[in-house]
Amino acid sequence: MMSDNNDFLSKRIQCILLNIINGFKMIFKTRSVDVICLSVAGFCAGVFLTCGIINARRAETRHGVGGFETAVAPEYEENLSSLLEEDDAASAERLVAQQDSLDSGKTSSDEESVITYQTYRVKSGDMIGYIADAFDITQDTIISVNNIKQSRLIQPGQYLKIPSMTGIIYTVKKSGETPAAIAEKYEINAEKCAKVNFLDKDTELSAGTSLFVPDAELDWVTRQEINGDLFHRPLRARYWLSSAYGWRDSPFNPGKRTFHGGLDMAVSNGTPIYAALDGKVTATGYNATYGNYVIITHHSGYKTLYGHMSSINCRRGNFVYTNTMIGRVGSTGMSTGPHLHFTVYKNGKTVNPLGVLN
């Protein structure tokens, strides 16, 4: 009797298990559950992958740590090697050692009048302003000492001379100039100017002689010229640079190369044209090449020409400012379509406008 009951229970359990298994089979045949299962599987795979990446990064990080650790930020004195490339560090240490040996025998007065130089290698992303701040000197100093003509064109890998004090290089224009006269011109200390250059205040210098003038600054025109901030763009509207400054294939004589002395700024007809710099209108008129044109004379030997205008809104003798509209864009003269021809002259010779436009 007991054996029959056991067989009955066994068969009953088997029946229940089969029903459960068949139920699961039916459930997993539905599309929605398939999607859920796939999602769960994808989630699990993502967790495992993320853990693997984190562990890999931790392994890499461990190869790049070191140094003494403290609970607070350490106090330190910045030295030259932090401002130089790694391959210049040894050179920087030598400079520091040499400077220390010199300093041991100097008075404070001597220290102020002795100039030393070090070398800095330009890095990617460097600007003259950043370099000047790092060495506690002025932009004018770096520009003048390194004879930089366009500050925007410094290149990574280029070496710059860095003096130990602020100042500029001055070249004697006329024989007979003295350190005292030069110091007076720049409103600086004459004694310091003479000592830095190992001269007497009243030493007469020959034309062409160069000396370092401590604490002096470049004049604002030269600074803006070098930094490319001297002229404003004559068009306030968006334009297309249809022809740059320099040699080009002639648009009027196929197969020939001609020199283009300015910029061609293509824009819609009638767009207002403004003076690129304050100055006096010295010529207006019509020319077979430039069509309707205006010439403005500025300070420091600069002139600007505006060509192919549809109309002229100023007269010869007018003093104009950068907010003065002098005319409108057109296509007069030798032109293939509406645009402004813009030329910059320096002492009678054309220069690339892109080098002086802000």
If you had to describe this structure to a student in words, what would you say it looks like?
This protein is of the alpha+beta class. It folds into two domains: 142 residues, no CATH class; 116 residues, Glucose Permease (Domain IIA). The protein contains nine helices and 16 strands. The strands form four sheets. Strands 5, 8, 9, 10, 11, 12, 13, 14, 15 and 16 form a ten-stranded antiparallel β-sheet that branches. Strand 6 and strand 7 form a beta hairpin. The relative contact order is 0.07. About 10% of the residues have low confidence.
User: What is the count of β-strands?
Assistant: 16
Give the overall shape, derived from the CA principal axes: flat
Largest sheet: 10 strands, antiparallel
Low-confidence segments: 56-92
What's the order of the H and E elements? HHHHEHHEEHHEHEEEEEEEEEEEE
N-to-C span: 108 Å
Supply Rg: 38 Å
Number of helices: 9
Structural class: alpha+beta
- Average pLDDT rating: 79
Helix content: 25-40%
